[in-house]
Amino acid sequence: MHTPPYIAPARFASAEDALALAQAIYRGSVEHLRGALQRFVAGEDDGRHVRACYPFVRVRTDTVARADSRLSYGFVAGPGHYETTLTRPDLFGPYYLEQFRLLLQNHGVPIEVGTSPQPIPVHFSLAENDHLEGSLSPERRLRMRDLFDLPDLAAMDDGIANGTHDPQPGEPHPLALFTAPRVDYSLHRLRHYTGTRPEFFQNFVLFTNYQFYIDEFIQLGRELMADPAGAYDAFVEPGNVVMHRSGLPVPPGGEAGSAPPRLPQMPAYHLMRPDSSGITMVNIGVGPANAKTITDHIAVLRPHVWLMLGHCAGLRNSQQLGDYVLAHAYMREDHVLDEDLPLWVPIPALAEVQVALETAVADITRIQGYELKRILRTGTVASTDNRNWELLPTRAATSPERRFSQSRAVALDMESATIAANGFRFRVPYGTLLCVSDKPLHGEIKLPGMANTFYRERVDQHLRIGMRAVELLRQQRPGSLHSRKLRSFAEVAFQ
Predict the structure, then answer these.
(1) For the residues of 202-220, what is the DSSP string, one character each?
(2) Does residue 492 lie in a domain region?
(3) For the chain, how long is the longest CA-to-CA vector?
(4) CA-CA to 385 of 20 to 30 Å: which in 52, 287, 310, 349?
(5) What are the pLDDT digits (tens) for 132-156?
């Protein structure tokens, strides 16, 4: 077995010192794997298995925490032994620091950092522009399986987040929702799906199901970069193409990137701020499968909130095309999360997000109070995985119309309930503001001319409402955004 030099575990009363050791362990492990891989690609093979492991952080406490009861994270559920593996301390450094400080503050016991027994899969050690496929013959790729650790699905499931993880006797309880291999897996998938590096993602995320919104976001992002006094420092497009705000010096490596020959499956765009409090917008496309896929991966970045901005079918005759719907409840017929989050689990509305969205609508439309009800309706949003539900028999006992009526649904789409449910599952605050683009129950189906007019009139306003909501949410403490409603009674300590 060929391993890097051993770094002994140590106990710390300082979050900064604990993070420094985690960084040293991770850096040594990754450099060890990359060096061995480079030699292997060059043709060397001494027959020894190459292994390097993730760092871990551990807390042992024999008392019940006397933590700030207003917080939903930063403390363990009760006396015991808690542990998690860590990855990418360069990317998650500020996040880890906050978690370490809260654990030290709330429990008054040192935290321990050391090298875990969990191997780092060699694929997860690759640098940003490293690619194996073109460098190895099929025979060498097969040989690599014998010499390096490969991704293990058993170490990457969502049992902790789903509440189904049951530690074996003597096994530590989890400190975080995600293990290091699970995080690494999602970081690599984010590059693939969005066409941008995880480092560019911001703490406030907007999802949409139409390219029209992305076009507006691109135009707005470029306009903001031309303003020397703007609030955002850079705008990033797929291919890691970075545009810096006028007047700002370009940091080393900041000019990297090139537009891809074709857009990725779910392209992401980032309005960046130095403290990562900017806005990331992702075109998730249509359907609950896409919505689940992208939120499964963005969740490991621990954003402060994600919001859905998209189009929906209005189900009430009193609604007009272009009206807004603020989701207060969700009827789930998406089916993609049934195994992870049973249908009997309610998805609560989060007051802070709801107020921000309603206030944003009022601010941008300049309509206040009772008059706001003319264009904004709050109620249940139904999400379905059947795009052509209109073609089902209407007189059947299980007809969609009956379910819509019984649920009091005011709007229908294919993504919102999935995004909200996954936010609930992963403890990421969520919200939904939709715009009525058709009324199929009332004979107003989408027609080309009507749709074009609608899109021109509403997309820009809708996007600005979403961005205004982010501004309002940014003014709040993260501790108030990460609602206690999203935490179970046996919860992990990390946010």
Answers:
(1) -SEEEEES-HHHHHHHHHH
(2) no
(3) 76
(4) 349
(5) 555 677 777 788 888 899 888 877 8
